[in-house]
Amino acid sequence: MYTALFLVIAVGAFAFAGAAQEPAITVEDPEYNFSEGDEFEINGTTYAVTSVGMTEPSGGGHGGGGGAHMEATIEWNVTEQGSAELATGPDNAIEYNDGEYEVVIENATNVSEFTLRQMPGDDVTVYTNDDGERVVEVQQDGETQIIPIDEYQGLQRFNFSEGDAIQYDGQNATVGNVTNGSVQLSWSEEVTEDVTLTEGGTTEEFGDETLVAHFPTDSSVVLSTNVDAYNEQADQQSFFHDRTDGLLMISFLSGATGFILLGMAYLPRRE
Predict the structure, then answer these.
(1) Angle, CA of 187, 192 and 195, to the nearest 5°
(2) Does the keyword Transmembrane apply (predicted)?
(3) What pTM was computed for the model?
(4) What is the rounded distance in angstroms from the CA atom of residue 47 to the CA atom of residue 39?
(5) pLDDT (tens digit per residue) in 1-24
């Protein structure tokens, strides 16, 4: 009798869990509706939907990572400002023209120009004399000559003024303020940024409003500002899953109990 009761409960719970319909999430009047390849503009910025679709599960089949899920990637370009300060002296040499160069600025008032002077190689003897002046030791006509490094012609030089263009660290920079001890450089560069959207994920990248993502099909994504309505539907789905998981657990336990009782009925009795 008890065996039959538990088996009936197991079958009924399993059937009820299988027949239950999961509540669907719908987004009414979304602000944006996109497919892969679409572009849209907000506040002068152009956004491109580079991908929409199901992602492969990660983890290599060994229990790690999450399962497959819908994702959308949106990219856009922004202009960032960069700057650098170049200081004088050999200890502050920079890479330029496939070599090392030091910044040289005339010791004067109201300077607006500077020179990039090639750093001497290992085959050039450079030292500071007793007067604190950097000099180069060269051989001319069999005699040793001492020449101030500013007058030594064996080093390549490039001259720049405020407002000139200059290549620096891979950037097309502009020379700004020049002082006796330093040079200001500035540049702008275009950088690509992106955001990856998943079901129920929110973003504030597109304007000042918070948008929630939903995938009505496997090739489209919608964005809505009605986050509360979406969350309410998501909570209903979560409640549904909790209940169906509970029914499946009841089905499993009841079935297991029924089979245990059935097995016990066939155990030999001790006389």
Answers:
(1) 140
(2) yes
(3) 0.61
(4) 6
(5) 545 544 444 455 445 445 445 556
DSSP 3-state of 180: coil
Query: Which residues are 11's β-sheet partners?
Result: none
Helix (H, G, I), strand (E, B) or coil at 259: helix
pLDDT in tens, 33-60: 999 999 988 888 899 999 999 887 665 5
Token pair 């004067």 is at which residue?
A: 108
DSSP letter for 53, please: E
Domain positions in the chain are 1-28+226-271, 83-190
Give the Cα separation of 24 and 29 in Å (integer): 16
Site of tokens 């918070």: 210
Token pair 């950097």: residue:
134
- Per DSSP, helices labelled H in 202-226 are none
Which single residue is written with the structure tokens 């029914």? Answer: 247
Residue 101: phi and psi, rounded to 5, are -135, 145
Compute and round to an integer the Cα radius of gyration of the chain: 37
